[in-house]
Each structure stands twice: as C-alpha cells, then as structure tokens.
TrEMBL record:
Cell division found in the keyword field: no
Phylogenetic lineage: Bacteria, Bacillati, Actinomycetota, Actinomycetes, Mycobacteriales
InterPro entries to which the protein is assigned, alphabetical: DNA-bd_dom_put_sf, MerR-type_HTH_dom, MerR_fam
Residue ranges occupied by any HTH merR-type domain in the UniProt entry: 3-73
SMART domains registered for this protein in UniProt: HTH_MERR
Name recorded for this polypeptide: HTH merR-type domain-containing protein
Single GO MF annotation: DNA binding
Amino acid sequence: MAGLTIRAVSRRSGLSEPTLRYYEQVGLLGPVERDPSSGHRRYREDDLDTAQVLACLRAAGMSIDDMRTYQANRARGHEAAGEQRDLLLRHAEKIEDRIAALRVHLEYLHAKAALWDARDHGDAVAEDEANQRVQRMYPRLEEVILG
C-alpha cells in the first residue's frame, strides 16, 4: 500500500505525530487509511494538504472548534464562501490585535534597555529621560495586559 507515513506528514506539515493523531481523533483529519498488514497510518496527498492547512490555522491561533467550522465550510465549497471569509477575517483581526500588543511590549523593552544602557554609561540625564519614557508606557501596557 502506498501513502505517506505519519512521520513524513509530520515533517512536511510541521504538526507533531501526536497532534496528527489527535486531529484524526477529533475529526479534523481523515479518516486516514491504514496499511492492512501493519495497521500503520498511510496518508494520501489530500491528507497532507489538509494537515498543512490545519498547521497554518493552528499557527494563527484558531481554536479546534473554529478549525472544525473551517473544514466544514471547506467541504461545502462556494455556498460557504461568505462564512469562510468571515471566520478568517475574525481571526485576522485577532492577529492584528496581538501584533499591536506585541509592538507595545517591544517598545517597552526598548525603553527599559535604554534605561539600563544609560545606567551602564553613568548618564544621569539619559537615565532620567529613559525612566520617563518607561513611566509613560505603563498605561499602554496596562491596556494591553487587561485587554
């Protein structure tokens, strides 16, 4: 029997072998054919394509339930296009929010590094300026942390 092993699909999709098994168990992937003599999974190219899609969705932070919805919409084709678009745009918005939060964290780290750099160089004026910059960051950090 031809087909890809779980190890090959794991390498090519970036999903671990346990994750592939789990995705099969919860109905996101498969059913995956089995080698009749060994019982080992044998993935088709379509299974690999699905695994790669799931890896991208997972990396984007999509929940299992939303991945299920995505897969169901995918199977429905054009009639589910609007639902699929909306699902993806909701996740794009979440990612944009995360990027904005990360930018605040990055700015904070740069401000703190400038503070410590000024201390390292014994520059009291630069230290004071950096400290003020850090202090101005607190409301933005609080907003990001508390959502």
